[in-house]
Structure formats: structure tokens, C-alpha cells
Specification:
This protein has strands at 19-20, 26-27, 31-40, 43-52. Strands 1-2 form a two-stranded antiparallel sheet. A two-stranded antiparallel sheet has the order 3-4. The chain is mainly beta. It has no helices and four strands. The protein has one domain. It is elongated and about 50 Å long. Helix content is 0%, strand content 44%. The N and C termini lie far apart (43 Å). Residues 2-41 form the Fibronectin type III-like domain. This is Fibronectin type III-like domain-containing protein.
Length: 54
């Protein structure tokens, strides 16, 4: 419906951001990540930076 809003809670755990390192081990790197939500890559409605500290 037009002009409808909804609150959504998204929980992102560090392991959700795992990547393979050069030794093919799953790891989570420290750093800032940008989370973007939208209907497409050119129609972003919300962005939020998160930071992983180790």
C-alpha cells in the first residue's frame, strides 16, 4: 500500500560477515561495514554503518 511504513529489526552477528582468507579458512575481519536496504541498488532507503572490533 502506498505510504505504508513498517519497522523491521535485523540482527547481524559477526559470523554473518565471514569471508575466506588466503588459507581458505573462514574468518571475520575487523573493520567498518555498510548495510544498505532498498528496492534496488539505485533506490536505497536506509544505510547504516557497523564496525567489527577484534
Amino acid at each position: 500500500m502506498p505510504n505504508q511504513t513498517k519497522t523491521v529489526k535485523l540482527v547481524i552477528h559477526p559470523e554473518d560477515l565471514e569471508i575466506l582468507d588466503k588459507n581458505m579458512n573462514w574468518t571475520v575481519e575487523s573493520g567498518k561495514f555498510n548495510i544498505s536496504v532498498g528496492s534496488s541498488s539505485v533506490d536505497i532507503k536506509l544505510t547504516q554503518d557497523i564496525e567489527i572490533l577484534k
